[in-house]
Amino acid sequence: MVLYKRHIFVFIMAVVLLGLSLVSANAADYEKTIISPKFSYINFFQNDFYISDSGKATVASYLYADNSDQVRITGYLQQYKDGDWKTVKNWTSSADGNDIILEKDWYVESGYTYRYISYGYVYVNGYVIESTSYESSKICY
User: Fold this and answer.
1) Is the distance from CB of 76 to CB of 61 less than 8 angstroms?
2) DSSP 60
3) Which of 18, 54, 57, 122 has the fewest CB atoms within 10 Å distance of its CB?
């Protein structure tokens, strides 16, 4: 009887170890298939969004690129209302060269959820050659 229990224990451990190795192998295969953007021009795209206790929403986007003629950021402050996201304010800023900052404030109405979405564009010879985007976490105010 003791020998029988030992064989069952060894069998169960073998199945568990085999299962763990398959999970690890699948996780490794999954990591290889994740596609992440590799930018040629955009070096840095950072965004900040918050709402103060007084209802002042502050949005900020920073874009830095290499070897560009012009950069542009378009930002959208959105409110969730009636089951849909509605833009309450949008801004666009462009600059010749490689870097740009878009910083704006806007007072929002209480009782709603808000988010900030921004798009960064890099131009060379008048054409968009690279772009990126950002969507903030949602903030209830």
Assistant:
1) no
2) E
3) 54
